[in-house]
């Protein structure tokens, strides 16, 4: 990518980085809603299949609209390349399967998005890939958890609903020392709070369904290759052929030419277009998500019926210090709070008028959910404890409405609790 683009400031990059004009000078790249791409001669198509020429073939493999968003995300994260997928879960599955093989182990933070926990704990275990979990606040546990079979270290930037914030730079230092790549799911922090490549992540994951899309109109995922990991290692013989041909791009090549092509979880062009629209306003929205969340956290903390509030932006959060340092004084749009019990939590949710009760985060609208009875209902009591999911807990994804209206909604709802 152009060097000048890397020099743009973050908010400008969201709008201009990696973008191109469409046909006739259109200010939007076109939505290429086509499954396949035609060529005049058999020779041309042969050249493309053999890698002697560059060209589109079939949308599962690549499409100009998808490539447009991939280029923009790579520029924004300061990565060398990106691959977008049909969902955040397919981004994680594709990226992880590109790294590990049967018999390999993943060492993962225990504070995980529910779908990722299920993927690691249940699904991948059935295919001979074992995951060991470590407490992300315990760096010693990370270091001692590494063994001969470990091929990947996995973590999230802000745990949900635990609201824990691990020290990603410290994770990276340990991963580097052991020659193991660090993959970070940065969905909740978004590129706005921090660029994970600068903190040492080798592979960055986003569910674009959340803050990047921003208005909850399409599911999508992204895998960004920081280009920082050296895959020439005894641990990764399956990268040898890709490194020989694609050098620094070995990981992206293995994703694109093998795993993503074979698993087939490609993004839809219209969804990629819509998520790209969201990306332009990410900084403005995140600024408001963060300031509204802090205001709501302070209001709830002072409320007599609220037992506790968990938000890394509050000085009494055990993660306030690391979050301040890592995220430059901004703390994201998610918070959790506790009432007396499950009945009180249900009463509060039922009494909210503005805040919508649903299973999502990162919309412009304020959203609430009772995780213990919904998204985490299948967890055993031990896993619930590990993930910080208690019966009295309500999760809030704070929207970008006028903060006075959000607070008024909670004030009235809590009156009846
Ligand atoms: C939502 C989410 C995912 C999964 O993304 P989908 O787009 O729903 O598949 C993964 N990780 C985190 C942290 C999420 O919030």
UniProtKB/TrEMBL annotation:
Record PANTHER family: HOMOCYSTEINE/CYSTEINE SYNTHASE, HOMOCYSTEINE_CYSTEINE SYNTHASE
The answer to keyword Transferase applying to this record is yes
Q: Which UniProt keywords apply?
A: Pyridoxal phosphate, Transferase
Instruction: Tell me the protein family, please.
Output: Belongs to the trans-sulfuration enzymes family.
What is the protein's name according to its record? O-acetylhomoserine aminocarboxypropyltransferase/cysteine synthase
InterPro entries from the UniProt entry? Cys/Met-Metab_PyrdxlP-dep_enz, OAc-hSer/O-AcSer_sulfhydrylase, PyrdxlP-dep_Trfase, PyrdxlP-dep_Trfase_major, PyrdxlP-dep_Trfase_small
Q: Which residues form a coiled coil?
A: none
A Pfam family this protein belongs to? Cys_Met_Meta_PP
Q: According to its UniProt record, which cofactors does this protein need?
A: pyridoxal 5'-phosphate
State which residue ranges cross the membrane.
Answer: none
Please name the SUPFAM superfamilies in this protein's record: PLP-dependent transferases
